[in-house]
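Batch job 17 of 40 flagged for manual review because the log was empty.
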Amino acid sequence: MLNALDADTEAMVGRKPLEGRSAIVTGSTSGIGLGIAQALAKAGAAVMLNGFGNPAEIETLRAALADDNDVDVAYDCADMSRPDAIHMMVERATARFGQIDIVVNNAGIQHVAPIGTFPAEKWDAIMAINLSSAFHLVQATFDAMCARRYGRIVNVASAHGLVASPFKSAYVAAKHGMVGLTKTIALEGAEFGVTANAICPGYVWTPLVEHQIDDQAKSHNIARDAVIRDVFLKNQPTKRFATVEEMGALSVFLCSDLAASITGTAIPVDGGWTAH
């Protein structure tokens, strides 16, 4: 018996938790999405990157991610506001990887304005990219996951999927919708080995956030530290930004076999913001 256990242990040594799996991560050419894609690749998954950016820089990123982790990494420039483009991306990813085991819906945009002056076209764009794109991508991959009796869906929502802030009507509505969509997917996939969970970050340190801090400090003529303390981290009791590495580590766990019983959740990674 001990010899059999030793053999099993030896077989698992060095095995990565997501080895043999393949993933699509939307909005993954920078920020949170990139951090999640890097973590999935490090855990052994093949990854389809998606997002906008300089083609040469994206190719350098793709090649490095593949070489550093010895996994297949592809890139697709599908516009996440277009359902037909999303379905075509799934077809290309399936042709390349053979199947899609993991879907991470991370693509998102933001616009801030009072309800009375909130542009209708901005509302429509935020709903399309932040919420509807997740539905279309899940719809395109869900039945095949259920048929194989394995699937992991991670939806990047936000602390604003759990609480609201003024002037962010579309973003808050979309992120609340993402949490509700996650629960529905979880219930429909529960008997088929398909899990769905939402990650709800507070403010995460990314190049975009760093740029916003500098812009606000300059436009309001206040110290950079004051912008961080009094604006960005006002509602995060830890008074520190979450990191993309934390988002990646959580995503890998949720996609692993050890998280098979975790589904339908909305997990705050917000430094205590929503504990108020």
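Reviewer: the log was empty due to a logging misconfiguration, but the result itself is present. The chain has nine helices and seven strands. Unflagging and moving on to job 18.
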